[in-house]
Write a structure and sequence with these properties.
Length: 614
């Protein structure tokens, strides 16, 4: 027992140097032992002092041993000439759902490490909703160099009274996850409701010195104050300067989101002069970002470029990507800065404004480089995919058009009904409105001429007939249907369409694939992306997923959909934690009250006619 290392659950305890490593680092710094690697001739970003220093960096056993003047004599096994480039700490994404990249953790690592992301704080909510504890455990591990720390999902399912959901995470299991060195805190919660279990979970996190992260849904005043009073200390939904300042004044970290649905950077930093005293309270996250957007626009490197382009001082932008989040999440003793005894997660950057790493090191080993304008990982993804990640698609045997109906009370063919509907704006935000729609054989129908499509959420976990349908505007679908098995949060089947027949075909097609994305029209499958791992991730390389994702997006565009990320936004239409309305497999939900509301307001029979403007 004396030789066993004690179990410590403090954040980052799994990343700190042990006693032997500390002695080694000291000896290397003293020049008594050769370093493994010296990175020479570099301009080090000293983010704690906001200086750029000509230095050399000595690395031993994966840690930084010393940062010394360029003429200081160090012995080393290997020397690397930095060619007078800048040396920055590795980037940290402070809130992401890796599953929404459509990739496994290993393929995600191959995609983002060459761009400079060396650590992610990931909420495994998606796979947790499908496979529970073992899915969450799997999502936090990879044999690739990427460091994955976890934000433990606030609740699975999020609202048991409002959804059937998939897997269930017990309170004791949540607390066990939280009490680990790999857990940085509580995953995002929403400001609508705070029960005893939520209070216990957040109190436990705070007592462990861990953060409670937020998804404020852009609420203001009393709702925001009450939200902050529950211990939530960051928010990735603030966009406009007034929202940003409100949160900063409440002592919250503003985590600027740029994903597939939202790029908040230009608006957040539209007036940088108003934020000068608060730059150290900003960090960056992607939240939900498809592989295509990671490849084409970037990951945290995109945040840094955009922040600089919008007037944020260069060193402040780099701080937001590394040192700020490390300090906030109490990881600065192991990552986030170029300093002794920290992990040697480093980026060699020729031009600070371009943010294109020429080389990336993790734990002192070069894992990526950029040559002739192409960034490339220097490692393979050797992660093993367990068999239990497959075959999670369980639709009811009776699935079909009947399950997609919206019944109009007492209505007959040829009449119309008034329904509550959702209009998409700013990515996944929804504005409630009422609209007249045609009724056929008692079934309320979509109306493509006024851009109102039907949307259905269908249980795909338990093979029940639990399903509900509503209506949404903003996709501009002219014909056909789109479907995905990535519905947020519980990862059910979500189908959008102009007619029930194509919608049913879309759902049936995904059932044969074990999950994914599909576009259909007039009884034909136009394109698809298979996501057989928990119905939400591909088992292929990121290059293959990128190609198939492009194909299905092009097919969606051919149906009239003008959104840049139609399948991502489709997955979030039903999210009941974002105002005004949400939709689960059990029904339409008012986000503010977290109560069910009827889809059909009334029919338009003569005895029920009323003025829609009132």
């Amino acid at each position: 027992m004396d030789n066993e290392e004690p179990y410590i659950s403090a954040v980052g305890a799994n990343l700190t140097p042990n006693a032997d490593q500390l002695k080694l680092l000291r000896n290397v710094a003293l020049g008594e032992v050769a370093a493994d690697l010296i990175i020479e001739n570099v301009r080090v970003l000293s983010l704690a002092t906001e200086e750029i220093l000509h230095r050399k960096v000595a690395i031993a056993n994966g840690f930084i041993a010393a940062i010394a003047p360029v003429d200081h004599p160090f012995c080393a096994v290997e020397h690397f000439d930095g060619a007078d480039c800048f040396l920055a700490p590795g980037f940290i994404d402070t809130h992401i759902h890796i599953e929404y990249s459509l990739l496994t953790p290993g393929e995600f690592a191959r995609c983002v490490l060459p761009r400079g992301t060396t650590c992610v704080l990931a909420d495994p909510n998606c796979v947790g909703n499908v496979l529970g504890v073992r899915g969450m455990e799997w999502a936090g591990k990879t044999t690739t160099p990427l460091k994955i720390l976890q934000q433990i999902s606030h609740r699975i399912p999020r609202a048991p009274g409002l959804e059937l959901g998939g897997a269930t995470l017990a309170e004791a299991e949540q607390l066990e996850f939280l009490d680990s060195a790999e857990a940085v805190g509580v995953g995002e919660s929403v400001p609508f409701g705070f029960d005893d279990r939520a209070a216990r979970f957040q109190a436990a996190a705070l007592s462990m010195g861990k953060r409670c992260t937020g998804h404020s849904a852009r609420v203001a005043d009393e709702l925001l104050w009450a939200y902050a009073a529950t211990g939530v200390s960051d928010d990735h939904n603030a966009v406009h300067i007034d929202e940003v300042l409100d949160r900063l004044r409440l002592g919250q970290m503003v985590t600027v989101m740029s994903g597939s649905m939202n790029d908040n950077l230009p608006l957040t930093f539209a007036e940088p002069e108003l934020l000068k005293g608060a730059y150290r309270n900003f960090s960056f996250c992607a939240d939900d970002k498809h592989v295509g957007d990671l490849v084409k626009s970037g990951h945290i490197d995109h945040h840094v470029r955009s922040a600089i382009a919008n007037g944020v001082p260069v060193l402040e932008a780099y701080r937001m990507a590394s040192y700020n989040p490390a300090c906030f999440y109490r990881l600065d003793h192991v990552i986030g800065q170029i300093a002794p005894a920290r992990r040697a997660d480093l980026l060699l950057i020729p031009e600070l404004e371009k943010v294109e790493p020429a080389a990336v090191w993790v734990d002192g080993i070069q894992v990526a480089h950029r040559e002739q304008g192409v960034s490339e990982a220097l490692f393979q993804n050797e992660d093993v995919v367990p068999e239990w990640l497959y075959n999670t698609m369980h639709l009811s045997p009776s699935f079909g058009e009947t399950m997609l109906r919206v019944q109009a009370p007492t209505a007959m063919s040829g009449e119309v009904a008034v329904v509550r509907a959702m209009e998409m704006y700013d990515g996944y935000f929804k504005r409630a409105f009422e609209v007249e729609l045609p009724v056929g054989e008692g079934n309320v129908l979509a109306d493509a001429e006024i851009d109102v499509a039907k949307i259905s959420i269908v249980d795909r976990h338990h093979a029940t007939e639990t399903a509900s349908s509503g209506f949404v505007r903003g996709f501009n679908l002219k014909k056909g249907a789109l479907a995905a098995t990535t519905n947020c949060e519980n990862q059910n089947l979500v189908i959008l369409g102009t007619n029930d027949a194509d919608m049913a075909l879309a759902g049936e097609t995904l059932a044969t694939f074990g999950g994914g994305y599909v576009a259909v029209a007039e009884g034909k499958v136009l394109a698809y992306l298979k996501l057989p791992l928990a119905g939400i991730m591909s088992d292929e390389s990121w290059e293959h997923v990128l190609q198939k994702s492009d194909e299905v997006n092009i097919a969606a565009a051919s149906l009239g959909c003008e959104m840049e990320a139609p399948f991502m936004i489709l997955a979030f239409v039903g999210l009941a934690g974002v105002p005004d309305l949400g939709l689960t497999e059990r029904g339409l939900i008012d986000a503010a009250s977290q109560q069910f509301v009827p889809v059909v307001v009334c029919c338009r029979c003569p005895q029920h006619i009323h003025d829609l403007s009132k």
